[in-house]
Specification:
The chain is an alpha+beta fold. The chain is built from five helices and ten strands, in the order βαββαβββαβββααβ. Strands 1, 2, 3, 4, 5, 6, 7, 8, 9 and 10 form a ten-stranded mixed β-sheet that branches. Helix 3 packs across helix 4.
């Protein structure tokens, strides 16, 4: 059977995450239902990331074994005709039989979005965390530099994860501010793999730095100490978007 991989974009607001689960609306279930309608047979999907309830994706990678070939440029159109408005297939490509969207990726890039303004923005509020007082962006940028590299990130892991080790390697963390009112703050985190709620805790810690609750230089000692209580709060899922998945070009 041919194996097809495809990129999906979704608004996670009304989803209980990507992974299929009982008595809840999951992205995987919606995609599998569309695949079943398209191919007239039951098809199981494998995704690159579970994503928590409320988390969004601009570039979520999945793969599935299908009974026949639909041209790569036609597959997204066929799927999107069967999908609801909050999820869409953006691109597809056929891959080797042993390719895995879960195990063959080289890393991921996330962006956590915060917006700051005296008043809330209903349009931004769906995909960003609201902070009424503008944090110190320069301090956040200084603190972000401590995250790059391989560290034990136990201080940035929420309880409930199933990981065997809390050691992870991050390619980098960047903070960028766009505009003035509202000021939109993007915290970009890229790495090989992530712990449970890791990006949301990193974002919460950097926000605490920007609010003067943590000094930038203290971030290094928080990483080294491994104490979750010393890091910032876990920011809400709605501000987080999976932006990119890294795979081999071939």
């Amino acid at each position: 059977m041919p194996r097809i991989a495809f990129i999906t974009e979704f608004d996670g607001t009304d989803f209980a995450g990507f992974q299929s689960q009982e008595n809840a609306r999951a992205v995987q279930d919606v995609l599998e239902k569309a695949l079943e309608d398209l191919y007239k047979t039951k098809i199981r999907l494998t995704g690159c990331s579970r994503t928590d309830a409320g988390v969004h994706a601009r570039c979520h990678l999945s793969h599935a074994d299908v009974p026949f070939v639909i041209p790569e440029d036609k597959f997204p159109l066929a799927m999107n005709a069967l999908l609801p408005d909050d999820v869409a297939v953006k691109k597809s490509f056929y891959v080797a039989d042993d390719f895995s969207a879960r195990f063959d990726i080289k890393g991921k890039r996330y962006i956590y979005r915060i917006y700051s303004s005296p008043t809330r923005s209903p349009l931004l509020d769906r995909t960003s965390y609201y902070c009424p007082v503008l944090p110190d962006i320069a301090k956040m940028q200084a603190a972000a530099s401590f995250f790059a590299g391989e560290h034990d990130f136990a201080a940035f892991c929420a309880t409930g994860g199933s990981q065997k080790t809390t050691i992870r390697r991050l390619f980098g963390v960047k903070v960028e501010a766009i505009g003035e009112d509202p000021c939109q703050i993007e915290i970009e985190v890229s790495g090989e793999a992530f712990l449970y709620n890791m990006v949301r805790i990193i974002a919460g810690t950097l926000l605490y730095v920007g609010q003067g609750k943590i000094e930038p230089s203290e971030v290094a000692s928080i990483i080294e100490g491994g104490d979750r209580s010393q890091a910032g709060k876990t920011l809400p899922a709605k501000g987080l978007t999976l932006e990119e998945v890294f795979i081999d070009s071939d």
